[in-house]
Amino acid sequence: MTQKQHLEAKIKDQRSAVLVVNINSRKGEKSFSRAIDELTRRGIHLVASYPVRQPERLPEIVKEAFHRSASLVIVGGGDGTISAIVDEFAYQDVVLGILPMGTGNSFARTLGIPLSIAGAVDVIVNGKVADVDLGKINDDYFANMAALGFTADVAHKTSNRIKQWLGPLAYLFVALQEIVHHQPFSCTLRFPHEEQRLKTHQVFIANGSFMGKTWLAPLIDPDDGKLVVYTMPMRNRWDLIKLLAAFMLGKFRAVSAAQYFPTTTVVIEADPTQYLDVDGEKTAQTPVTVSIAPEALKVMVPQAFHDEDQGDKQSSGMI
After folding, report:
1. Could you tell me the fold of the domain covering 140-293?
2. With pLDDT > 70 as the criterion, what percentage of the chain qualifies?
3. Which regions of the chain carry the CATH code 2.60.200.40?
4. Longest dimension (CA), the chain
């Protein structure tokens, strides 16, 4: 029996967990009590539950949850919440359960986790444990996606207050203002065996296949041992408008100028210096090294989720 299978059996036998909810996330406060009720109704004994009002305390609270000897720690929040705590889960024998309570919930969508509390709890009760990859920016792990350029600037300028008020439309509201004066930047992508230079408004580094509601591409998979660098070599505002329209229509792949680069690592340089947005949170700035952390996260997923050992995965086509 593998460690993953052992943990899965232990979780199903013990039916206990620790719950940590970022009640500062869009749906966190109103969903906290519902989550407790639904988990209890489905037979999950909560050893402890933490409503966290200060997001910066999430890693500390998760560490405390680990000390309670929990094999399953359930976290409620959005993509920023998940990326804030995955450093604690990376390469640990503790399983993450996800309750989507954010604005975009991109990582939950990538894993096939329903966005309703009842649906997400059903995955925790009846799902399975999967080993999925994480991305890594320098020494910091991330779950779904990192971005620099236009969308990073929009995410940074979209306040929690606007997201609470408008939901996903908050990003469109800010993007329409940002599009007027956003400037392109020069970017160099250094892969292990190739170098790409371009001028653009946007670069993505994807571990997951969704950004908000928008499905990026079928070749992006959090279980394949690689990242996909996705670039938009745009030189004018019309291209930027097409990018925004593609996002709003959920047809991001329709942007003809898009380029994909599957890889295990990339060094990114930019002129002028660009900040990276990681799952909705502003973090590092260029130059940065971004790499894959294979099978770093144990997480509850639906039974239908495709999960296979890294030894069976193919690395063909990587740069």
Report:
1. Tumour Suppressor Smad4 (2.60.200)
2. 78
3. 140-293
4. 58
